[in-house]
DNA sequence: ACCTGAACACCGTTCAAGT
DNA sequence: ACCTGAACACCGTTCAAGT
């Protein structure tokens, strides 16, 4: 029991009718476009219409609106995580950490709906934070550990907690977001026992 | 031109029919209660019904839903700002700053809808951030300046920027929010030129 | 002046009928 | 198996009629 019953988007590739897969791809593509312009609350009829299918087909693939949102942002998260490995090799641990943070800020800032869904607390979006953590945590943990071993930041930081905090700050967008994240990273560098009381 | 035409909630107190004022108060009270349980997206009919008025009356007092939300949260902001003066006299500048931050975190964490409205970017809520800043900025600026003059934090921080960042972190709620805000305050204490490169 | 609530428009969701 | 779209329910918003 508790098997995933054909989760929308990913899953077993065989035994799926060609038109069904075409429709699903079309819906995802249409949703990404509509989300970018009208936000994640865009009318179902608009997305279905743009994909050239009936609303019934929409609901067949995505019974809950959150299913669609999750599927769309999963792809975006993949794109971000894939671009987060080279930095550790190019820069000093502390510098690599700071740079990855800024890159992450740009990503989150660009997707308005992502952080909204991420921080809504709505249990319908539960798989999204889970995927977010699963893909992004390892990247940050490596950077964190290297910087810690180099003595550049305080020890014992929780990568997940940091990730969530930064994504909150990043959702402000613009230079404010960049400055505040940089300030938070400076917080990591600060340790009470050194110069200031 | 560009005068405020009887903004809902505050304004000139004379020439208002007694039943109209009663209805407005009832609507605000009902809204606060409904917001607490069902969130700020609760149906208009539910709020109007609880206040014992027709939906037309609701729209007469609050033409836009955002007008109601703004009116409700204005009261909440007042309550928070009023409680933020004694700390500077009781503690050292740096300590007073850190404590006020934590108190502010508690406030924002308690009101789910506030930060959502605050950070939505929707121009309909524009008066809300404005009021938020107007009431809370002076408090933080004083704390900041004192801590800066005492040499406990870096100079040149923008109070508004900091306020917005902290309210974002605070909207996470719980101990995570407290820890991350404390980390940000440590960022203020950190200055590059001292011990670490 | 202000209030009421029927009426309208819009959107989410279902399901009988089709292929 | 999967798709379609008419039909239904619900909610925001207006406005003619009342006091």
Number of helical stretches of at least 4 residues of chain A: 10
Under CATH at level 1, the class of the largest domain in chain A stands as Mainly Alpha
Quaternary status of these chains?
A: homodimer
Counted up, domains of chain A total 2
User: What characterizes the major β-sheet of chain A?
Assistant: none
Helix content of chain A: 55-70%
CATH superfamily of the largest domain in chain A: Tetracycline Repressor, domain 2
Pattern of helices and strands of chain A: HHHHHHHHHH
Pick out the low-confidence regions of chain A: 1-11
Counting helices, strands and paired strands, the structural category of chain A is mainly alpha
CATH architecture of the largest domain in chain A: Orthogonal Bundle
Largest contact between protein chains?
A: A-B, 26 and 27 residues
Characterize the overall form of chain A. Answer: elongated
Terminus-to-terminus distance of chain A: 57 Å
Description:
2 copies of one chain form a homodimer. The first copy, chain A, is mostly helical and 197 residues long. Chain A has 2 domains: 1-63, Homeodomain-like (Arc Repressor Mutant, subunit A, Orthogonal Bundle); 69-191, Tetracycline Repressor, domain 2, CATH 1.10.357. Helix content of chain A is 69%, strand content 0%. Chain A has 10 helices and no strands. In chain A, helix 4 (65-82) runs parallel beside helix 8, helix 6 (93-110) packs antiparallel against helix 8 (127-149) and helix 6 packs across helix 9. The radius of gyration of chain A is 20 Å and the shape is elongated. The relative contact order of chain A is 0.10. Chain A binds chain B through residues 112, 119, 121, 152, 161-162, 164-165, 168-169, 171-172, 176, 179-180, 183-190, 194-196, and chain B through 112, 119, 121, 152, 161-162, 164-165, 168-169, 171-172, 176, 179-180, 183-191, 194-196. Chain A binds a DNA duplex (19 and 19 nucleotides) through residues 17, 19-20, 23, 43-45, 53-57, 59-60, 65.
């Amino acid at each position: 029991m508790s098997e995933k019953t054909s989760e929308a988007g990913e899953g077993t590739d065989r035994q799926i009718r060609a038109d069904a897969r075409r429709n699903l791809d079309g819906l995802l593509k249409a949703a990404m476009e509509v989300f970018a312009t009208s936000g994640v609350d865009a009318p179902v009829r608009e997305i279905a219409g743009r994909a050239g299918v009936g609303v019934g087909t929409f609901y067949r693939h995505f019974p809950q609106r959150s299913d669609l949102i999750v599927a769309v942002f999963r792809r975006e998260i993949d794109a971000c995580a894939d671009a987060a490995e080279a930095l550790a090799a190019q820069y000093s641990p502390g510098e690599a950490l700071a740079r990855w943070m800024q890159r992450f800020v740009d990503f989150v800032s660009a997707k308005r709906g992502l952080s909204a869904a991420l921080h809504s607390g709505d249990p319908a979006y539960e798989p999204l934070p889970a995927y977010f953590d699963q893909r992004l945590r390892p990247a940050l943990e490596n950077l964190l550990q290297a910087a810690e071993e180099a003595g550049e930041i305080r020890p014992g930081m929780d990568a997940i907690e940091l990730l969530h905090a930064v994504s909150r700050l990043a959702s402000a967008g613009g230079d404010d977001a960049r400055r505040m994240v940089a300030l938070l990273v400076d917080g990591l560098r600060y340790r009470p026992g050194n110069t200031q009381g």
